[in-house]
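Run log, item B.
One chain of 351 residues. Sequence copied directly from the ordering sheet:
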Amino acid sequence: MIRVFSLVLSLFAAFVSQASAQIGEARPSSNIDITVVANAPPGGPGDKLWKMFDDTVTEKSAGRLSLSLLVHGQIGGDELVMQALRRGRGNVGIVGESGFAQVVPEVAVLNMPYLFSGPEELDFVVDGYVTPAIKELAVQKNLEFLQWVEIGWMNIYAKQAPKTPDDTKGYRLRSLPYETSQVFLKAIDADVINLSFPDVIPGLQTGLIDGGESSTLMYARAGLYQEAPHFSLTRHAYSFAALLMNKEWLDSLTPADRAIMVSSFPDQAFVRKDTRDSLIVELANAEQEGVIVHRLDSMAVEPWAALARETHDDLLDQLGGEARRVYELVQEGKEVFAEEQLNKQGGLSGG
């Protein structure tokens, strides 16, 4: 009788234990606070993207995943944003190429002057050839690279109109804080001035600099046009930022939460179109404010491009790492793109 009673107790205990485990498995995980970091200008296209990301994460997680958005430079510039991501003080972030290239120097290949001939070629090569390689390199640095967040073409702003490289000889131009910018400005024989961003407008006002290079968004939103009203669309490089996550932190999440985090930011196609549409508006607004925009056709661009392309080999030596492999991937993609364009033209003419 005692043995029967003991058996019943054992079965009951096993049943209770199993039921408790099942209940525990069904219970949603606890709330998670997520720190998002970036250095974006307030009111720019990034604000809309972050809001969409925040809203989607909140909806998919039923409010369990809570984002703290420190995306307007609250922790500092791109270099500090990258440090925060790598050290786990930030979980998710967008980092400009100067910050990303500190950790993955091969990223700077994409910003080499006159690497791409136009947006269609750029999209084809970056999506199909470069991005997979950058993903692999980022993982080695404890970073999960999700996608590019485009900034757009780099152009030259100035007090006077630089329409040809002859116009920039000895012209005091402020470079951006990375090799590709400095090498390009030297190639066009400018007097290259290294200046922190807060000092740019005072530098223009005092004559320390005559201009510099900038994306359309930064030129317009930072008020550079007020001191340097000429904007030459040299389109000598395309600027990217990157959406990154701390890989160790991401891997610590449940599969369901990981899926939410990697799928909630607006996708590459949306971001690309949204950015390019917004830059058209920014440029039009700048013209209404009195900016003199110099639109250079392919013949006008060629002298700039010829000088810039001569810098590529030396730049690759400076960048080191696997920069040459990434550059070769770019060239491979460009060749395939050119062949496809020829085939399309042949098909059209044959029809």
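Observations after the first pass:
- Confidence is low (pLDDT under 50) at residues 1-28.
- The radius of gyration is 25 Å.
Flagged for discussion on Thursday.
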